[in-house]
What we know:
This protein is α/β, with parallel strands linked by helices. It is built from 10 helices and 14 strands. The protein has 2 domains: 2-198, Alpha-Beta Complex (DHBP synthase), CATH 3.90.870; 223-311, Threonylcarbamoyl-AMP synthase, C-terminal domain (Rossmann fold, 3-Layer(aba) Sandwich). It is 33% helix and 18% strand. The strands form 2 sheets. It has a 10-stranded mixed β-sheet, with helices on both faces.
Amino acid sequence: MATAAACLRQGGLVAFPTETVYGLGVAALDAAAVRRLFAAKGRPADDPLIVHVADAAGLAPLVAERPPIVDVLAARFWPGPLTLVLRRSPLVPDEVTAGLDTVAIRVPAHPVAQALLVAAGIPVAAPSANLFSRPSPTRAGHVLEDLDGRIDMVIDGGATQVGVESTVLDLSAGVPQVLRPGAVTLEMLRPLLPDVRAGGVNASGPQRSPGLLDRHYSPRAPLTLYEGAVERVIDRMRKDAEAAHAAGRRVGLLIPDADPAVTAARLYAALREFDAAGVDEILARLPPTTDGLSQAVADRLRRAAAGRVVHCG
Length: 313
Ligand code: TXA
Ligand code: MG
């Protein structure tokens, strides 16, 4: 841990587990190091990073204002999978925020992430530790698949627990808006934040979160999403799979039927397994949206499908 913390302080790139997905950490206030991180991931410079701090006190130097709701949310959800977007202080480099006047901040709950942040003693910017547009890593092996040779180290903490990225909540504009659904759901936020609304990819108007583009989180094989009543979906998927198979194509079938939390935890590993198996296409059933985590799963599957959706009535 001391070696990893020293590496971060010297501007190195250290991948580490959080409770959501593995992050690729870098000293957040070191603009040159942050540019190296963008290069290592192949990430477009207009996609801002989340700054990770050990506790809510770490937020103070990074923000220009701290509405009282921040402390209410922090007391309830930090450490945990909630990212807050707030007006930034001049301390935060443009490289981190992609030139926006806001900064995204979270306090991760994973004990390894906590220990690393405490040992480093600096704010750590950390996007998911995947190559741009690949599924986020939920195991150390996924990080190495994408980034071996491009980063300084990875701390192996086993499989992550949540499996999908943190909820991103924008508090910087008038109405609080969830830009990316995650394990902290609208239903959980509403008692503290009655006017919170869903937003993000489907919101009209200017893009508030530049990273929320379609064709994100994608396996290499094209993924088609099947939506509708389960019998019709399975029927249609079987027909399409048989047709593809008859045409000599290798097909991967993703039919989540578990508890939404289990589906979320396994989703990205499953997409990577299809790539490793060399399938030509993936057919995926959209699981019913019951609770909030199922909404996060549906959101990631829709992005992976990038518009290839079959409605089965
Ligand atoms: O769970 C997570 O959040 C993981 C772990 C490592 O903490 N991190 C993660 O980072 O998913 P990344 O870079 O893959 O996704 C960050 C998201 C992007 O959609 C980005 O556009 C959004 O947060 N974001 C960052 N700064 C923002 C800002 N100032 N305003 C709006 N959205 C922002
Ligand atoms: Mg990412």
